[in-house]
Amino acid sequence: MRFLIFLIGCRKFNILNVLLHSNIGETYLIYVIRPLVTYSSETWTLTAKDENNLRIFERQILRKIFGLVNTGNIWRIRNNMETDKLIEGADIVRFIKAQRIK
């Protein structure tokens, strides 16, 4: 079940690539993509591999939303630490674990 939801989220991510590059990309992540991917996550048993896959998926979306970084006329992709700073530690796995507590 959780793999199916993960695939649905990936499919939506590919379809809405243009939307993520717009100014509302971060809002879209919080209110549409994250709830779609974490639907019924309260019942999941997350293994370390599942957590890693979810974090990879979220970082891919964040890289699309926030774009590239220009350092001295060289454009590069943001690294994991930079994407974590942008979301201030509120990653998708912490969101799922917080939903279980409610």
How are the SSEs ordered, and which strands pair?
Elements: H1 2-15, H2 17-20, H3 25-37, H4 48-66, E1 69-70, E2 75-76, H5 80-87, H6 92-101
Describe what you observe in this structure.
Helix content is 67%, strand content 4%. Helix 1 (2-15) runs antiparallel to helix 3 and helix 3 (25-37) runs antiparallel to helix 4. It has one domain (2-101). The protein has a two-stranded antiparallel ribbon with strand order 1-2. It is mainly alpha-helical.
Q: State the strand order across the main sheet.
A: 1-2
Counting DSSP H or I runs of 4 or more residues, the number of helices is 6
Beta-strand residue percentage: under 5%
Which word captures the global form? elongated
**Termini separation:** 22 Å
| Count of domains | 1
Q: Kindly name the structural category.
A: mainly alpha
Number of strands: 2
Radius of gyration: 14 Å
Helix percent reads 55-70%
Query: What is the helix/strand order?
Result: HHHHEEHH
Q: Quote the average pLDDT.
A: 75
User: How is the biggest beta sheet arranged?
Assistant: 2 strands, antiparallel
The low-confidence runs, each spanning 5 or more residues with pLDDT under 50, are: none
